[in-house]
Amino acid sequence: MTNDDDPVLDDPVGQSLGGRHAHLARRLGRAATYLTEVATFSSVSADPDEEDWSDLARLLGPGAFADMFNCPAAPPPSWEPVFSLEGRQMVWPGDGRPGRPGSEPGTGVVELGADSVPEMLDLVARTEPGPFRPRTRELGTYLGVRVDGVLVAMAGERLRPPGWTEISAVCTAPEARGQGHAARLVSALADRIVARGDRPFLHVVEANTGAIALYERLGFKTRGPVTFRGFRVP
């Protein structure tokens, strides 16, 4: 564990929706969620009451999916549980750039623009790194690796609480694995994040031991456990 106790990391969704991602948010009272085509994540206050959950239900609509990320508060009993996954939050504890031999960030890495979205969605469908929608790339910078013109790996910036930027959507096509693409992409993103004065952090499902080992080799440290939860709005 690190001794980094920055409280904004306890609610990265709410901190992002109320700050640097406010232009991508929908809000009602103390409830907030991203625009539908951007992300699935939703947030309520730290001490939500019945009105907060009612406001979030109105924002999302009947039968909609509420991705509560690591929200510790439980929704009303009428909200149907969809999934619960154990994971961890990891942070880069230093001032320099994460990296290891062979992970030089510039090697074959390109920035992905709006014209790359169809390829990005196809890669996500093949690799399932987590939620990704047609406008997710608007959350931050997305980088990729192309081989013979084909996108085979990518990673990007997602949640952005004050002082921090999350690295997410790290994925590599099956036929291109084992070549260091993920390490180069994560290093390249971390380099950019540190250069603008933020610190990189990320989330990973506990069962994904390969990813955890990679992030640890790059220098990331575990801040603490998280539980990802999703519900169906009644």
How would you summarize what this structure contains?
With 234 residues, the chain is an alpha+beta fold. 23% of the residues lie in helices and 31% in strands.
Which descriptors apply to this entry?
5 helices; 8-stranded mixed sheet; 234 residues; alpha+beta
Could you explain the architecture of this structure?
It contains five helices and eleven strands. By secondary structure, it is α+β, with helices and mostly antiparallel strands. The strands form two sheets. It has an eight-stranded mixed sheet with strand order 4-11-5-10-9-8-7-6, sandwiched between helices. Strand 9 (164-172), helix 4 (181-195) and strand 10 form a beta-alpha-beta unit.
Strand order of the largest sheet: 4-11-5-10-9-8-7-6
Q: What form results from the Cα inertia axes?
A: globular
Strand content: 25-35%
Helix content: 10-25%
- Number of DSSP helices? 5
Q: Spans of 5+ residues with little confidence (pLDDT < 50)?
A: 100-105
In whole angstroms, how far apart are the ends?
38 Å
Overall residue-averaged pLDDT value: 92
- Topology as H/E string? HEEEHEEEHEEEHEHE
The biggest sheet amounts to:
8 strands, mixed
Radius of gyration based on Cα positions = 17 Å
Count of DSSP E strands? 11
Q: What structural category do the secondary elements indicate?
A: alpha+beta
